[in-house]
Structures are given as structure tokens and as C-alpha cells.
């Protein structure tokens, strides 16, 4: 594939004519192993979620031997209307997601692992692989809760979001063990860094376009608009301005600021899309210094998030990943959550909004205890404190804006210090843009603690197609190559 043009002045198509890549909903067979204790627990949670839907007025039916729920129009029910178009394009529908990878998942406890403990020293390879694997696990774990509010998630999963769920309800549902487009974008950026040995704008855009699978993966509203526009022939550097106007009209967000519907969130060049995919850039430029890291982040988002807020949120996430990659968990002096926050406030964040949110985090930082009972945790004061901080850091609890997104991911990562698996579970429990938020938390955890903390039950259930470019084994190989990069001395090559 040739590089997509970055300076062409012709060929800009009308935004309203960009093609809609909305593949048909795929129905898979129900899992055949529903008699195991883990599956029984998930079935109870599934029934609980259906009941929650019914309580909101959702008509659901059971038909045939597949025990799948019937498709329901989005306008027929407030609970489905709340999902709307958003990142799950197409008609709303309840269905059972396929569980092809379930047989490969090893038996494991549903509670947070207590056997893992941080190593004194973690290699760069382990950190790089952990960064990508942690992001993948977080994305898959949280995929069923896209656009759900935190109080809905804990009703669906009162025993904790501890395992991949076999049932994803709604349009464009993710299959068991499958990741969404958010992780596909992060992996594409990592692969571009490895291939180009630097952050090159055209190469990053080409990698994102090559990995774009709208018929198979769920993408956020703005990510779809950007990729559809670029693939239609729109000049890439014009996309952010055109998309901003398009989204302002189609979502009517400027006239509905009181609405808390997910599809009316402020998607666009200031949203979380770039921040969700830049963790590999932070890792690759971990020794480059703040200025070179900022330059690399800027080059990676010129075609999508060139606004001050979009850049600042992405830079904060990348800087946090770079900081984590430089630290060793055994260093009790330098490797502390307060040290990371101080670095981000004093050396990284620029916009007033981002700085204010980081200071709010610093002033209200606390540590979540190790969770032994998720049901008790969700009913306890620490979960309430997290929910309160979520409401202070972001509007409506979705964390759509780049600064909100970065702040919420850092909230979870910093308050669950030394407990990476627990941090990922808490992030998934907070809902909102859960797959993207949780993948950043997992990436930061992996960049600091390596790959060893990833539970075996998650590892075994990740999608892993033999010929796929985004399966578990392929992710590990990209991570190993990423761990060998030290891009501080390669800035000149990256700008060519």
C-alpha cells in the first residue's frame, strides 16, 4: 500500500457522502459449555443484565434452542436509545456473542490474583510485551460495557468484572475474547513504530487505515468518521475541521448539553481517540526527553486530533507510559504515584483543563485496598470515592474529552498502585468508554510491571487466529520488537 497523501489540495469529498461501513450483526452459536461453574455465574449475570433492561422497558424474548434475545429497534426502549448510534453503529440488537475461544481458557479463580507480586527488576522486553498485552486484556475485558454507566456495570456484574464475558448485548457486539477497534488502533501504532523506527505521520495513518475493520470491530464515532473520510479520498489534514462540523450537526451536541446520551458526547478532534492509542509511542520514546516525545505524539495525530486539548491528553498518556517504562517496581523512592503525578503536572501538561484535573487527582489521591469481595467493594466507601472522583473529572461519566479520558485512566492506575489486575478490573467497572479507558490502564500497568501479572485465564481466552495480525501471539511479537526500540537517538530518521 502506498502512503496516503498528506498535502493534496484536490479530491476532498463532501462529508455527508462518506461511506458508512456498517457490517451486518454477526450471530454466533451459543457456548456449548454452559454447565461449568464459571459459565453458570456468567449466565446469572446475563439474566441480571436482561432484567435490568426489562426494568427500563426493553422488550426481550427468548426464541428457539439458541436462547438468544430478539432484535429490538433502538427507538423502542430508553435503555437502547441511550446507546444510540455512538460507537456501535447499526440497529440495536440483543444477542449472544460467540465463545469460540472459551475452551482454551484455563481454569482460574474469578477473584483478583494474590499470587503475583512485583519483581525488583523488569526487562524492557517484558515491559513492552506487558504494555501491549495489558492493553489487549483491558480492552477485551471491558468491551461489553461500552457506553454503560458505572452503576449499571455493577448491577450487571455484582460479583466483579473479573473475567471476559461471553455475552455482549447491543449492536456491533464483540465476540468472546475479541478486542474492539480501540486496541486495533493502538496495535497499528505500535507496528508502525517498529517498522518505521519512529513516529511518521503518513506511516501511522497508513497503519491505521490498513488495520481498519469496521465490519468486524467496534470503533468510536470519530474514529469511524476519520477513517471513512480518509479512505474516501479526503485530504487527511482537512479531516479534523470537516469532521468537527459534521459531528456538530449530526449529533446535535451543541444544542443538547444537558443530555447524557452517549451518542451526543463531544466526539471530534478534542476527544479521547488519540490518547487511547499513544501508549506505544511513550514506550518507544521513553528515553527521548519531553520535547522529542511531544514531537512524536504530535506527528501521530495531525490527521485526527491536532487541537490543543486533543494533543495535551495524548501527550499526558504517552508521558505516563514513558515514565512507567523507565521505572523499576522495586524502587520505593522514585517509583511512586506521587512522583508520576508531579512529573505530569510540572513537565508535561499544558492546557488549563488538563493541569486542573491532574491537580485534582493529586489533592484527592488515595489507595484502594486489595479487593477480596467485589460485591462488598462495590457497596463500600472506596468505590463510592472512585465514583465521586469520576463525576468530578468528567462530564456525564463517559470521559469523552481527551483531558477527561487521561485523568480517569490515571485515577484508576494511581489508586490501585501495585495491583495491576485489580486496576484493570476497576477501570472496566467504571463503564463509559470502558474498552479505551481500560486498555490505557492495562498498558500503563504492563509498561511498569511487565507481562507477568497478566492472569492465565485472560491470556488463554484472548483471540489468537493462526493467520491473524491482531491475535495474541502477533501482539507478543510486536511487543518484543517494541522493547528493542530506543528512539532518543533516531529523531532525525523519524522526521524523514
TrEMBL record:
Coiled coil: none annotated. This is ADP-ribosylhydrolase ARH3. InterPro entries: ADP-ribosylglycohydrolase, Ribosyl_crysJ1, Ribosyl_crysJ1_sf. Binds 2 magnesium ions per subunit. It comes from the Eukaryota. Belongs to the ADP-ribosylglycohydrolase family. Residues 15-40, 254-273 are annotated as: Disordered. It catalyses: alpha-NAD(+) + H2O = ADP-D-ribose + nicotinamide + H(+). Mg(2+) binds at residues 180, 182. Keywords: Hydrolase, Magnesium, Metal-binding.
